[in-house]
Amino acid sequence: MRLTDFWERLELVFGAGYAQSVAEDHVIPGLGGRTIREALAQGEQTVTVWRAVVAAFPDRVPSRLH
């Protein structure tokens, strides 16, 4: 998954403003206790980060975006 696709999906799910907050402020268990921004900055693959987001917010992410 391209980085631009990742950010588009995150904004679709959370809205443009809140997506940035989720990326910077929420520690995601599936990312080893890192935030989305930390995981991406440390070289984690976008598909791995996206799967962790889906697992952390299962009721928020529509199945078509899994």
Could you characterize the architecture of this molecule?
This is DUF3046 domain-containing protein. It comes from Virgisporangium ochraceum. There is one protein chain. The chain has 4 helices and no strands. Helices cover 59% and strands 0% of the residues. The mean pLDDT is 96. It has helices at 3-14, 16-25, 36-41, 46-56. The chain is mainly α and 66 residues long.
Properties at a glance:
DUF3046 domain-containing protein; mainly alpha; DUF3046; single chain; 66 residues; 0% strand
How would you concisely characterize the structure shown here?
This is DUF3046 domain-containing protein. The chain is mainly α. The chain contains four helices and no strands.
Record the SSE blueprint.
Elements: H1 3-14, H2 16-25, H3 36-41, H4 46-56
Helix pairs in contact: 1-2
Estimated share of beta-strand residues = under 5%
SSE order: HHHH
Structural classification: mainly alpha
Average per-residue pLDDT, rounded, comes to: 96
Radius of gyration: 10 Å
Q: Report the biggest beta sheet as strand number plus sense, adding barrel if it closes.
A: none
> Distance N terminus to C terminus?
12 Å
Helix content: 55-70%
Residue runs with pLDDT of under 50 for 5 or more positions = none
| Strand elements, count | 0
- Continuous helix count: 4
Overall 3D form:
globular
